[in-house]
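Lab notes, practical 5.
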Amino acid sequence: MTKVISDIKKFKIQRKSNLFKDKSVGLVPTMGALHEGHLALINKSLIENDITVVSIFVNQTQFNNKEDFKKYPNTFKEDLHKLKKLKVDFVFYPTYEEMYPDNYNYKVIENNFSKILCGKYRPGHFDGVLTVVLKLLNIVKASKAYFGEKDYQQLKLIEGMTKAFFIDTEIIPVPTVRSAEGLALSSRNLRLSDKDKIKAVEFPRILSSGLPIKKIKLLLKQKGFIVEYVEQIDNRLFAAVYLGKVRLIDNVKV
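Output from the prediction step:
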């Protein structure tokens, strides 16, 4: 039976109970609006651990755009139905006041990789991400935590943070889950208009074309995307674009 806990103290009491004794614990942090990408993370945790905890918390400190935060999909009822169907053990569903009793006076800051790519265009975004993930890792004390490769920059920053702060939780990367047309699944896709959903599939197709970056940018613009960046770091090509007011990100190996 899936248990929903919103109170950190109650979760910590549960965590110290015999239920968790000598058990491996998997954590899947989410902001809700669950899709097949999230479910891939959850299923991997269910296979690899005795107990799986899924957190649902729309973390406002990582939104540099207040309107973006307000428009983020809230589908808790549907999400909980999916999690119960999967037989997830715990859903951790805290409030802002629970997670930030200090009102975000204390935060985690990374000074290099977080300042480029998405970090360059979303100031403060990764401060919020790293801070909330550190809090979740400290609360849940999971053996493993699962993150998708779609947010590859986020994944690498979280891996770096756990090493820097000697966190025992192992960070497990999970390959990007895509639609049949190749679009990386994202909760933001729910905000795309029907017309833009058709257009959006051109994004991964062009990004993985093997063409020079200048040509990729030109093709994306010709298809109606507003290009924020297309950059290669090591053997991976990163990109962020807008369709209307919806921001899409992706990355591919090169």
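Observations recorded by the TA: The longest helix spans residues 125-140. DSSP finds eleven helices and nine strands in the chain.
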